[in-house]
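Archive entry. Fields below.
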Amino acid sequence: MDAEDVRRATWRMAHEILERNHGPAALVLVGLQTGGVWLAGRLADVVRQVTGEDVPVGTLDVAFYRDDIGLRPVLPEAATHIPGELTGATVVLVDDVLFTGRTVRAALNALADYGRARVIQLAVMVDRGHRELPIRPDFVGKNLPTRRDEMVDASDDGVVLGDIRPRPGLPGAAPTR
Amino acid sequence: MTVAVDPGRPPGRHLLSVSDLGADGIEEILRLTDSFVEVSRRAIPRVPALRGKTIASLFFEDSTRTRLSFEAAAKRLSADVMTFSASSSSLNKGESLRDTVETIQAMGIDAAVVRHRASGVPEQVARWLDGPAVINAGDGWHEHPTQALLDCYTIRQQRQLRGLAGPGGGPSLGGLRIAIVGDIRHSRVARSDVTAFHALGARVTLVGPPTLLPASLSGWPVQVSHHLDDLLGDLDVVYLLRLQRERMDEALLPSLREYTATYGLTRARAARLAPEVLIMHPGPVNRGVEVAAEVADSPAAVITAQVANGVAVRMAVLFLLLGSGVDLAAA
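PREDICTED_STRUCTURE:
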């Protein structure tokens, strides 16, 4: 996907979010640190253009809720910021890439500490498969079959696939579009 | 009073001294503390990060705020806490410190928070324990690392809240002029604060009568003054230490009244400070001695913020040592 593909997918996902929820009322977009933060902002931009309304945008860091604490290094990227109370809200959790589902599991536990949302939905730019938990996205930019050992990078510049380890003789991962 | 310690640093992951951390380690803890300040503000201020971990709180010396602060930090991380207090323990039956420590380890702990009136005890405990992390919660006149961390965090936070400092690229306390006033000699807080403030770029002046300054200040990265009045116009932070009244019988001071007249932050002195100067104190405060009651309650005083931030800073330290998988010294 190039930047234009990502822009179109974002536009479509924002419309799907509005359609599913009958407009922006009670909507709260929560971007996961760090990959989902830009996408939550873009989705809010589109919602504003389409409806003229500002929806609250928050960020969520799930480091303290991960199930691999003690198995690998875990540090939060930034403090969580949740705008207002989530009880009764329609929360759309936003991330760049959906993979095993473990980050989303941690995010669901974290969100519960901010109140009882009426409904929580999941929006991701890329669903790359290989789920390890019974979690599925509600809004998807692109379904992208991948190998387990591939790396997926999704930003507003586009979506790139690469090797996790740099190949010998190359200065870094060599991403391919 | 000092216990003999073996040379070299004990193996394992511990927080024994501020100097173990270095500037980068301190900055990393301050950054992480932002996340725990957010957790502490929630309706449910608890995260599951240290579920299943057991933290022993070993206070061989009296403490209210530090012990409660560590225990609150551990509980907000969902760790289990075993509390030990020297006055009701088998130490009174003649059990040695080493046997006490090894008994507690045998019950299965992941960390020990140690306070003792003798310098060096936490380090010695770290040698005896095989595995658990040891956190120095204050040892003798030596160090009180988490106090220094919460003081650095409070200065950074309060200056940001007052619009005095952006989160720019430099060190957190770069260029700040900090006076530490009072009983420096007996103060583990002063020792840890000097190291931390200096590491983060502050210029520190120690202020007090010669009898309350250490015998030798060689190697301390500080200026020294005996005249608080000379400095008042050129400060960003005034850090007042508790005048340890229990030491009055050592005839280090003529009288409390004379101390207050020369080194107390009275209303008259506070009026000469610039409006954005922060007034700090590690507690407990002797109102009317090192600081006037009205000054301690003024908006410039951030003593309550220090206490609140103490819980978040200790959460950050416990999480780094027990949960993050990141080496504290190399963070």
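CURATOR_NOTE: The mean pLDDT of chain A is 90.
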